[in-house]
Amino acid sequence: MSHANTEPGEASDDANAPIPAKEALLRQLVRDKMDVIFGNPGTVEEGFLAALGNHPEIRYIFGLQESVVAAMADGYARVTHRPAVVQVHSAVGLGNAMAMLYQAHRSFTPMVVFAGEVDTRLQAFDGFLGGDLAEIARPVTKWSVRVLHGPQLLRMWCRAVKVAMTPPQGPVFLALPMSVLDEVVEPDVHETSEVNWHVAPPSAAVEAIAKALVDTSNPLILIGDNVALAGAQGEVRQLSELVGAPVYGVDFGDLSASFKDPLFLGLVGHGFGEQTRAITREATAVLAVGTPLFPELFPSLKPYFRDDARLFQIDLNPWEIAKNYAVELGLLADPKAALQEITQAVLRLATPESQQKARVGRQRWSAHKRAQRAARQQAYDAVWDRFADVAFTDGRSRRGVPAGQRSRL
Questions:
Q1: pLDDT of 226-237, one tens digit each?
Q2: Do residue 171 and residue 225 come from a single domain?
Protein backbone atom coordinates (compact mmCIF):
# COMPACT_ATOMS: atom_id res chain seq x y z
CA MET A 1 0.00 0.00 0.00
CA SER A 2 1.38 3.38 -0.95
CA HIS A 3 1.43 6.31 1.42
CA ALA A 4 1.90 9.96 0.60
CA ASN A 5 3.89 11.97 3.11
CA THR A 6 5.53 11.08 6.35
CA GLU A 7 3.97 12.18 9.60
CA PRO A 8 5.32 15.16 11.57
CA GLY A 9 8.60 14.52 13.29
CA GLU A 10 9.73 11.62 11.05
CA ALA A 11 13.20 11.80 9.60
CA SER A 12 12.65 9.70 6.45
CA ASP A 13 10.86 10.89 3.33
CA ASP A 14 9.89 7.29 2.50
CA ALA A 15 6.79 6.25 4.46
CA ASN A 16 7.49 2.60 3.61
CA ALA A 17 11.07 2.63 4.87
CA PRO A 18 11.80 0.22 7.79
CA ILE A 19 11.22 1.86 11.17
CA PRO A 20 10.90 0.71 14.79
CA ALA A 21 7.55 -0.93 15.54
CA LYS A 22 6.75 1.74 18.14
CA GLU A 23 7.01 4.41 15.43
CA ALA A 24 4.76 2.33 13.18
CA LEU A 25 2.21 2.11 15.99
CA LEU A 26 2.22 5.88 16.41
CA ARG A 27 1.70 6.35 12.68
CA GLN A 28 -1.25 3.98 12.92
CA LEU A 29 -2.76 6.05 15.73
CA VAL A 30 -2.42 9.20 13.62
CA ARG A 31 -3.94 7.43 10.61
CA ASP A 32 -6.99 6.43 12.66
CA LYS A 33 -7.28 9.88 14.28
CA MET A 34 -6.74 8.32 17.71
CA ASP A 35 -4.89 11.39 18.87
CA VAL A 36 -5.30 11.12 22.66
CA ILE A 37 -3.54 8.65 24.98
CA PHE A 38 -4.42 8.38 28.66
CA GLY A 39 -1.48 7.00 30.55
CA ASN A 40 0.61 6.29 33.62
CA PRO A 41 3.94 4.98 32.31
CA GLY A 42 6.97 3.34 33.89
CA THR A 43 10.48 2.38 32.89
CA VAL A 44 9.49 -0.26 30.33
CA GLU A 45 7.42 2.34 28.45
CA GLU A 46 10.21 4.93 28.18
CA GLY A 47 11.12 3.99 24.62
CA PHE A 48 7.52 4.42 23.49
CA LEU A 49 7.32 7.83 25.19
CA ALA A 50 10.54 8.91 23.50
CA ALA A 51 9.05 8.08 20.11
CA LEU A 52 5.83 9.83 21.11
CA GLY A 53 7.84 13.04 21.44
CA ASN A 54 8.12 13.06 17.63
CA HIS A 55 4.34 13.28 17.32
CA PRO A 56 3.04 16.54 18.79
CA GLU A 57 -0.32 15.84 17.11
CA ILE A 58 -0.90 13.07 19.69
CA ARG A 59 -1.90 14.36 23.12
CA TYR A 60 -0.71 12.38 26.15
CA ILE A 61 -2.87 12.87 29.27
CA PHE A 62 -0.98 11.78 32.36
CA GLY A 63 -2.71 10.38 35.44
CA LEU A 64 -1.21 9.74 38.84
CA GLN A 65 -2.72 6.26 39.17
CA GLU A 66 -3.91 3.71 36.65
CA SER A 67 -7.49 3.47 37.90
CA VAL A 68 -7.83 7.23 37.40
CA VAL A 69 -6.33 6.92 33.93
CA ALA A 70 -8.80 4.18 32.97
CA ALA A 71 -11.70 6.20 34.39
CA MET A 72 -10.75 9.25 32.32
CA ALA A 73 -10.50 7.08 29.21
CA ASP A 74 -13.88 5.51 29.95
CA GLY A 75 -15.53 8.93 30.04
CA TYR A 76 -13.70 10.05 26.91
CA ALA A 77 -14.87 6.99 24.96
CA ARG A 78 -18.47 7.52 26.07
CA VAL A 79 -18.48 11.16 24.98
CA THR A 80 -16.67 10.71 21.65
CA HIS A 81 -18.11 7.28 20.75
CA ARG A 82 -14.59 6.32 19.69
CA PRO A 83 -12.15 3.87 21.27
CA ALA A 84 -9.99 5.42 23.98
CA VAL A 85 -6.29 4.53 24.07
CA VAL A 86 -4.94 3.70 27.52
CA GLN A 87 -1.34 3.04 28.57
CA VAL A 88 -0.74 1.41 31.94
CA HIS A 89 2.46 0.25 33.55
CA SER A 90 3.44 -3.41 33.62
CA ALA A 91 1.99 -5.89 36.17
CA VAL A 92 1.08 -3.76 39.21
CA GLY A 93 0.01 -0.91 36.94
CA LEU A 94 -2.41 -3.21 35.17
CA GLY A 95 -3.56 -4.44 38.58
CA ASN A 96 -4.33 -0.88 39.63
CA ALA A 97 -6.53 -0.44 36.56
CA MET A 98 -8.51 -3.67 36.98
CA ALA A 99 -11.47 -2.22 38.87
CA MET A 100 -12.14 0.39 36.19
CA LEU A 101 -11.54 -2.16 33.42
CA TYR A 102 -14.19 -4.33 35.05
CA GLN A 103 -16.59 -1.39 35.02
CA ALA A 104 -15.79 -0.66 31.37
CA HIS A 105 -16.26 -4.33 30.51
CA ARG A 106 -19.67 -4.50 32.20
CA SER A 107 -20.84 -1.22 30.68
CA PHE A 108 -19.44 -1.94 27.19
CA THR A 109 -16.98 0.94 26.84
CA PRO A 110 -14.60 0.66 23.85
CA MET A 111 -11.02 1.02 25.10
CA VAL A 112 -7.68 -0.20 23.76
CA VAL A 113 -5.41 -0.73 26.75
CA PHE A 114 -1.73 -1.61 26.48
CA ALA A 115 1.12 -2.10 28.89
CA GLY A 116 4.84 -2.31 28.33
CA GLU A 117 6.83 -5.37 29.36
CA VAL A 118 10.51 -6.17 29.71
CA ASP A 119 12.47 -7.53 26.77
CA THR A 120 11.22 -11.00 25.80
CA ARG A 121 14.74 -12.35 26.34
CA LEU A 122 14.48 -11.36 30.01
CA GLN A 123 11.01 -12.65 30.83
CA ALA A 124 12.25 -16.12 31.75
CA PHE A 125 14.12 -14.60 34.72
CA ASP A 126 10.73 -13.84 36.33
CA GLY A 127 12.02 -10.57 37.72
CA PHE A 128 10.19 -7.66 39.27
CA LEU A 129 7.02 -6.73 37.34
CA GLY A 130 6.98 -10.21 35.83
CA GLY A 131 3.78 -12.10 35.11
CA ASP A 132 1.43 -13.04 32.30
CA LEU A 133 -0.27 -9.71 31.70
CA ALA A 134 -2.57 -11.05 29.00
CA GLU A 135 -3.98 -13.62 31.44
CA ILE A 136 -4.32 -11.02 34.18
CA ALA A 137 -6.42 -8.78 31.92
CA ARG A 138 -8.46 -11.53 30.25
CA PRO A 139 -11.41 -11.67 32.74
CA VAL A 140 -12.17 -7.95 32.33
CA THR A 141 -11.64 -7.54 28.59
CA LYS A 142 -13.18 -8.74 25.33
CA TRP A 143 -9.78 -9.83 24.01
CA SER A 144 -6.38 -9.95 25.65
CA VAL A 145 -3.09 -10.89 23.99
CA ARG A 146 0.69 -10.51 24.17
CA VAL A 147 2.37 -9.37 20.97
CA LEU A 148 5.55 -11.36 20.41
CA HIS A 149 6.76 -10.16 16.99
CA GLY A 150 7.22 -6.60 15.77
CA PRO A 151 5.91 -7.26 12.22
CA GLN A 152 2.61 -8.45 13.75
CA LEU A 153 2.08 -5.40 15.94
CA LEU A 154 -0.05 -3.32 13.56
CA ARG A 155 -2.14 -6.31 12.51
CA MET A 156 -2.96 -7.11 16.13
CA TRP A 157 -3.46 -3.47 17.08
CA CYS A 158 -5.99 -2.94 14.27
CA ARG A 159 -7.72 -6.17 15.29
CA ALA A 160 -7.91 -4.88 18.85
CA VAL A 161 -9.53 -1.62 17.71
CA LYS A 162 -12.03 -3.55 15.59
CA VAL A 163 -12.90 -5.87 18.48
CA ALA A 164 -13.29 -2.97 20.91
CA MET A 165 -15.69 -1.17 18.55
CA THR A 166 -17.80 -4.15 17.50
CA PRO A 167 -20.93 -4.66 19.64
CA PRO A 168 -20.95 -5.68 22.35
CA GLN A 169 -18.25 -3.03 22.67
CA GLY A 170 -15.69 -3.20 25.45
CA PRO A 171 -12.06 -2.91 26.49
CA VAL A 172 -9.27 -4.97 24.91
CA PHE A 173 -5.70 -5.41 26.12
CA LEU A 174 -2.28 -5.82 24.50
CA ALA A 175 0.97 -6.56 26.29
CA LEU A 176 3.86 -4.97 24.36
CA PRO A 177 7.39 -6.08 25.31
CA MET A 178 10.18 -3.52 24.88
CA SER A 179 11.99 -5.72 22.40
CA VAL A 180 8.89 -5.98 20.20
CA LEU A 181 8.44 -2.21 20.14
CA ASP A 182 12.13 -1.78 19.23
CA GLU A 183 12.03 -4.25 16.33
CA VAL A 184 12.52 -2.68 12.92
CA VAL A 185 9.53 -3.35 10.66
CA GLU A 186 8.16 -2.32 7.30
CA PRO A 187 5.09 -0.27 8.27
CA ASP A 188 1.78 -1.24 6.71
CA VAL A 189 -0.30 1.65 7.97
CA HIS A 190 -3.89 1.73 6.74
CA GLU A 191 -7.22 2.83 8.13
CA THR A 192 -8.55 0.31 10.62
CA SER A 193 -11.66 -1.52 9.46
CA GLU A 194 -14.80 -1.43 11.57
CA VAL A 195 -17.88 -3.63 11.39
CA ASN A 196 -21.08 -1.94 10.23
CA TRP A 197 -23.65 -3.12 12.78
CA HIS A 198 -26.59 -1.00 11.58
CA VAL A 199 -28.69 -4.03 10.75
CA ALA A 200 -32.46 -3.78 10.30
CA PRO A 201 -34.76 -6.52 11.69
CA PRO A 202 -36.98 -8.78 9.52
CA SER A 203 -40.31 -7.18 8.61
CA ALA A 204 -42.36 -10.10 9.93
CA ALA A 205 -40.75 -9.75 13.37
CA VAL A 206 -41.36 -6.00 13.32
CA GLU A 207 -45.05 -6.52 12.61
CA ALA A 208 -45.37 -9.13 15.38
CA ILE A 209 -43.79 -6.86 18.01
CA ALA A 210 -45.84 -3.86 16.91
CA LYS A 211 -49.09 -5.84 17.03
CA ALA A 212 -48.29 -7.15 20.52
CA LEU A 213 -47.64 -3.62 21.79
CA VAL A 214 -50.81 -2.26 20.19
CA ASP A 215 -53.06 -5.09 21.40
CA THR A 216 -51.74 -5.58 24.92
CA SER A 217 -53.35 -4.01 27.97
CA ASN A 218 -50.15 -3.17 29.87
CA PRO A 219 -46.96 -2.81 27.78
CA LEU A 220 -43.51 -2.18 29.27
CA ILE A 221 -40.25 -1.06 27.65
CA LEU A 222 -36.87 -1.86 29.23
CA ILE A 223 -33.71 -0.22 27.91
CA GLY A 224 -29.95 -0.36 28.38
CA ASP A 225 -26.62 0.97 27.11
CA ASN A 226 -27.00 -0.16 23.53
CA VAL A 227 -29.88 2.29 23.10
CA ALA A 228 -27.42 5.11 23.73
CA LEU A 229 -24.81 3.46 21.49
CA ALA A 230 -27.31 3.43 18.63
CA GLY A 231 -28.52 6.96 19.38
CA ALA A 232 -32.07 5.61 19.75
CA GLN A 233 -33.26 7.71 22.71
CA GLY A 234 -35.74 9.63 20.56
CA GLU A 235 -37.14 6.43 19.09
CA VAL A 236 -37.70 4.97 22.58
CA ARG A 237 -39.63 8.04 23.64
CA GLN A 238 -41.76 8.14 20.49
CA LEU A 239 -42.68 4.46 20.70
CA SER A 240 -43.47 4.61 24.41
CA GLU A 241 -45.83 7.54 23.88
CA LEU A 242 -47.53 5.87 20.91
CA VAL A 243 -48.41 2.75 22.92
CA GLY A 244 -48.66 4.35 26.36
CA ALA A 245 -45.89 2.22 27.86
CA PRO A 246 -43.69 3.15 30.81
CA VAL A 247 -39.93 2.99 30.18
CA TYR A 248 -37.40 1.77 32.73
CA GLY A 249 -33.64 1.66 32.41
CA VAL A 250 -32.24 -1.67 33.55
CA ASP A 251 -28.64 -0.72 34.23
CA PHE A 252 -26.85 1.74 31.98
CA GLY A 253 -23.82 3.97 32.17
CA ASP A 254 -24.88 6.25 29.31
CA LEU A 255 -28.16 8.15 29.27
CA SER A 256 -30.36 5.95 27.12
CA ALA A 257 -33.35 8.11 28.07
CA SER A 258 -33.87 11.58 29.46
CA PHE A 259 -35.18 11.85 33.00
CA LYS A 260 -37.41 14.63 31.64
CA ASP A 261 -39.28 12.18 29.39
CA PRO A 262 -42.79 11.89 30.86
CA LEU A 263 -42.85 8.09 30.57
CA PHE A 264 -39.29 7.37 31.67
CA LEU A 265 -39.65 6.25 35.29
CA GLY A 266 -35.98 5.75 36.14
CA LEU A 267 -33.86 2.65 36.72
CA VAL A 268 -35.05 -0.67 38.07
CA GLY A 269 -31.73 -0.92 39.89
CA HIS A 270 -29.10 -3.63 39.85
CA GLY A 271 -29.19 -4.66 43.50
CA PHE A 272 -32.26 -6.69 44.40
CA GLY A 273 -34.42 -8.70 42.04
CA GLU A 274 -37.52 -8.35 44.19
CA GLN A 275 -37.55 -4.62 43.47
CA THR A 276 -37.37 -5.33 39.74
CA ARG A 277 -40.15 -7.94 39.94
CA ALA A 278 -42.50 -5.37 41.42
CA ILE A 279 -42.23 -3.53 38.10
CA THR A 280 -41.97 -6.34 35.55
CA ARG A 281 -44.70 -8.62 36.94
CA GLU A 282 -47.42 -6.15 35.95
CA ALA A 283 -46.62 -6.11 32.25
CA THR A 284 -48.53 -8.16 29.69
CA ALA A 285 -46.01 -7.42 26.91
CA VAL A 286 -42.36 -6.49 27.45
CA LEU A 287 -39.99 -5.04 24.88
CA ALA A 288 -36.36 -5.11 26.07
CA VAL A 289 -34.01 -3.04 23.92
CA GLY A 290 -30.21 -3.03 24.20
CA THR A 291 -30.09 -4.38 27.73
CA PRO A 292 -29.32 -7.49 29.76
CA LEU A 293 -32.16 -9.15 31.68
CA PHE A 294 -31.08 -8.72 34.47
CA PRO A 295 -27.58 -7.81 35.77
CA GLU A 296 -28.55 -7.77 39.43
CA LEU A 297 -26.34 -8.52 42.39
CA PHE A 298 -29.10 -10.47 44.16
CA PRO A 299 -31.50 -11.78 41.48
CA SER A 300 -34.89 -13.10 42.46
CA LEU A 301 -35.51 -16.82 42.12
CA LYS A 302 -39.18 -16.10 41.50
CA PRO A 303 -40.50 -15.38 37.99
CA TYR A 304 -39.92 -11.86 36.79
CA PHE A 305 -42.73 -11.97 34.22
CA ARG A 306 -46.32 -13.13 34.17
CA ASP A 307 -46.97 -16.57 32.73
CA ASP A 308 -48.97 -15.02 29.89
CA ALA A 309 -46.58 -12.10 29.29
CA ARG A 310 -45.06 -11.78 25.81
CA LEU A 311 -41.35 -11.01 25.93
CA PHE A 312 -39.42 -9.50 23.01
CA GLN A 313 -35.73 -8.62 23.01
CA ILE A 314 -33.70 -6.50 20.59
CA ASP A 315 -29.95 -6.12 21.07
CA LEU A 316 -26.58 -5.86 19.38
CA ASN A 317 -25.19 -8.42 21.81
CA PRO A 318 -26.31 -11.98 20.96
CA TRP A 319 -25.06 -13.22 24.34
CA GLU A 320 -27.73 -11.22 26.15
CA ILE A 321 -30.69 -12.27 24.00
CA ALA A 322 -32.67 -15.00 25.79
CA LYS A 323 -29.73 -15.46 28.19
CA ASN A 324 -31.89 -15.86 31.28
CA TYR A 325 -35.47 -15.81 29.99
CA ALA A 326 -37.14 -17.39 26.98
CA VAL A 327 -38.33 -14.81 24.48
CA GLU A 328 -41.05 -14.94 21.88
CA LEU A 329 -38.78 -13.07 19.47
CA GLY A 330 -35.09 -12.25 19.89
CA LEU A 331 -33.66 -9.92 17.27
CA LEU A 332 -30.00 -9.18 16.61
CA ALA A 333 -30.46 -5.69 15.19
CA ASP A 334 -29.58 -2.02 15.47
CA PRO A 335 -31.93 -0.67 18.17
CA LYS A 336 -32.46 2.60 16.30
CA ALA A 337 -33.41 0.94 13.01
CA ALA A 338 -35.58 -1.63 14.78
CA LEU A 339 -37.47 0.94 16.86
CA GLN A 340 -38.04 3.14 13.81
CA GLU A 341 -39.63 0.26 11.93
CA ILE A 342 -41.69 -0.87 14.93
CA THR A 343 -42.97 2.68 15.35
CA GLN A 344 -44.06 2.84 11.73
CA ALA A 345 -45.81 -0.50 12.10
CA VAL A 346 -47.60 0.71 15.25
CA LEU A 347 -48.87 3.74 13.31
CA ARG A 348 -50.18 1.48 10.55
CA LEU A 349 -51.93 -0.82 13.05
CA ALA A 350 -53.43 1.95 15.18
CA THR A 351 -57.19 1.96 15.73
CA PRO A 352 -59.39 4.38 17.70
CA GLU A 353 -59.48 1.79 20.49
CA SER A 354 -55.70 1.35 20.62
CA GLN A 355 -55.16 5.11 20.53
CA GLN A 356 -57.55 5.58 23.44
CA LYS A 357 -55.72 2.82 25.36
CA ALA A 358 -52.42 4.60 24.70
CA ARG A 359 -53.85 7.90 25.98
CA VAL A 360 -54.97 6.21 29.16
CA GLY A 361 -51.53 4.65 29.54
CA ARG A 362 -49.77 7.98 29.06
CA GLN A 363 -51.99 9.63 31.63
CA ARG A 364 -51.55 6.80 34.11
CA TRP A 365 -47.77 6.63 33.95
CA SER A 366 -47.24 10.38 33.77
CA ALA A 367 -49.35 10.74 36.91
CA HIS A 368 -47.40 7.90 38.51
CA LYS A 369 -44.13 9.70 37.77
CA ARG A 370 -45.41 12.96 39.22
CA ALA A 371 -46.54 11.15 42.36
CA GLN A 372 -43.12 9.48 42.69
CA ARG A 373 -41.34 12.82 42.40
CA ALA A 374 -43.67 14.43 44.92
CA ALA A 375 -43.02 11.59 47.39
CA ARG A 376 -39.27 11.92 46.95
CA GLN A 377 -39.45 15.68 47.41
CA GLN A 378 -41.48 15.19 50.59
CA ALA A 379 -38.89 12.78 51.96
CA TYR A 380 -36.10 15.19 51.00
CA ASP A 381 -37.89 18.07 52.72
CA ALA A 382 -38.30 16.00 55.87
CA VAL A 383 -34.54 15.45 56.06
CA TRP A 384 -33.93 19.13 55.33
CA ASP A 385 -36.25 20.17 58.14
CA ARG A 386 -34.47 17.88 60.61
CA PHE A 387 -31.28 19.88 60.05
CA ALA A 388 -32.88 23.28 59.61
CA ASP A 389 -30.91 24.70 62.53
CA VAL A 390 -27.57 23.56 61.11
CA ALA A 391 -26.06 26.44 59.13
CA PHE A 392 -24.29 26.11 55.80
CA THR A 393 -20.49 26.17 55.89
CA ASP A 394 -20.57 29.84 54.85
CA GLY A 395 -22.83 30.72 57.81
CA ARG A 396 -26.11 31.06 55.94
CA SER A 397 -29.23 29.66 57.62
CA ARG A 398 -31.10 26.75 56.10
CA ARG A 399 -34.38 28.12 57.35
CA GLY A 400 -36.46 29.97 54.84
CA VAL A 401 -34.92 28.38 51.73
CA PRO A 402 -37.83 27.60 49.33
CA ALA A 403 -38.39 23.91 48.64
CA GLY A 404 -37.76 24.37 44.93
CA GLN A 405 -34.24 25.68 45.57
CA ARG A 406 -33.10 23.12 48.15
CA SER A 407 -31.91 20.49 45.71
CA ARG A 408 -29.58 23.07 44.10
CA LEU A 409 -27.83 24.04 47.34
A1: 999 999 999 999
A2: no
DSSP letter string, 110-166: -EEEEEEE--GGGGGG--TT-S-HHHHHGGGSSEEEE---GGGHHHHHHHHHHHHHS
Angstrom CA distances, 194 to 114, 160, 166, stand at 20, 11, 7
Nearest residue to 96 (alpha-carbon basis) of 40, 46, 53: 40
* Residues 179 and 220 occupy one common structural domain: no
Q: Would the pLDDT of 111 be above 70?
A: yes
* Pairwise CA distance, residues 152 & 26, whole Å: 15
Digit-coded pLDDT (tens) for 284-314: 999 999 999 998 889 999 999 999 999 999 9
Residue range(s) defining the domain that contains residue 36: 19-185
Sign of CA dihedral 79, 82, 87, 91: positive
Q: What CATH number did the domain enclosing 148 receive? A: 3.40.50.970
Other CB atoms within 10 Å distance of the CB of residue 218: 17
3-class state of residue 38 by DSSP: strand
The pTM for the full model equals 0.84
Same domain assignment for residues 367 and 264: yes
